[in-house]
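Hey, can you fold this?
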Amino acid sequence: MYSEEDINSAVAAGAMSAEAAAEFRSHMSKIRELPRGSEENFRLINSFNDIFVTIGTIILLLAVGAIGQAIAGVLAPFDAYDFEMTDAAVEEWQTTSALRDSLQMAFAGLFVAATAWPLAEFFTRRRHMALPSIILLLAFVGGTFFAMLGAGMALVVDGNDTIGALTLSLAALVSAAGAYIHWRRFMVPITVAAGAAGVAGTIIGLIVAAIGPENMVPDIIFGLVFVAGLVVWAIAMRWDFSDRERITRRSDVAFWLHLLAAPMIAHPIFAMLGVTEGDNLGVGAAVGVVAVYIGFGLVALAIDRRALLVSALAYVLFALTFLFREFGAVELNFALTALVIGSALLSLSAFWQPIRRMVVGALPQNLRDSLPATESAIRTAIEPSVA
């Protein structure tokens, strides 16, 4: 499969004319009866070799992480726990154990990050392999985060919860900086989302430290995550606005940002409705879940992104199952839920463009001009260029 970025690269290299690229996009839209941009294309694998390389990469990264932990174990040895220890000896054992765990985290993260970068030089920068590039990016940013977190924890083994929140914030900030450096070098689309997650973690950690971890309640945490999700979503929309036809790398960046923002928005809303409390869900809350999901569907249609629908799917499945059970369909509640949701999703997929035209058509003109182009607008833009 060739991505939009591959087509643009071919045009830039002179291997394909701009007119031929436009004709190809128009041809594929007619064959599939769906604009290429609306398919939310993102390249995951080019061939089975991508999977082969990914397996080897994961095995190698696990190995170097284990080596890092072994080295940390040599630098910070400690005796096995003895039930006959005095209180002072137990306290010393706990401190030594915490130091060892922190160093193991730091060394494992450092070794993984240090290995991921040179691998990315070959498989990302030279070979342009999609799935290995994603794994290597996550390994580098994640390794950087755990290296800094482990180092910080090792320095403040006896610290309190506030220091722990500050340490977490610093690690998230450094990982965000690492994501920025990685983006400047390799420009893997998921990198921007990884950096956004690091910045969000930094800000939330600082707020928790300022308020005091002992004063935090779940609703405050949910509120912070929800606001962070809205900010990430707004950033995703900014990238989408800059590529309404979705033919450049910017659209791929927006895809991953939407994928990050969706659970950050959905989970706090449904948690506050009581969905995460299991059987304590009430009928009113269950109806509220369905209503929120319908709202997510309208937003997804307007912006032509499906991430919100996928992230909220588990919650609406639970809510509908509860409603069917409450209204007497005990034995078939899950089957009826799966039937309703499956039919709705397939129908929505089949008639996505007609429904989207109706939703977008009901919006103000200035908002329509900013949203990703509809099917008719894309065809209007393409057909004159191929005529």
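Oh, and this one too while you're at it.
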Amino acid sequence: MKENRRIQMTKKLLKDSVIELLEKKPLNKITIKEICENADVNRTTFYKYYGDQYALVRDAEDALLQKTREFLANLNSEKEKILILEDFLYYVEENKDIFRILLDQNSNTEFSYRLMSLAMEMVLNEEYQINIKEDDKTYVYCMIIMGAISTIALWVNSDCDKPVEYVAKLMFNLVLFGLKGIEKP
């Protein structure tokens, strides 16, 4: 079911509100009242869409994960993989506040785990041309993905201080270099 623009705007206000509050304190210390006051949205309206603050954050995470899924699905396209990575990093940069908060290790959300699981699921189900032993693929992909997530977290925590193209090239080259070291002869 497609949501009308008013519903979408209300949900965006609530998400922005909780993200703003998450910058100051953990989710378990944030009340529905605070979220609603900060968003200038009625509590009844909040409960029309969400059961609690955790459902609201989960909805925000879901939106980011869906967009991430779309970028990962494009890895099999004809477009150069580094350009797809750049596109994704531009998306992260545009949404750096929410990524910074959700990727924070002190955050009491499961976003990092959910992001890693999504990426693992997608890359293990695809046919990537990596010439390594089948038994090693899960370990290799886990290291690559967690390294990428940690790099993105560092980048957004540094207020995206390096250009997207620089970060994409660095990540891309590190993966290629690392894979060359473990490829089967």
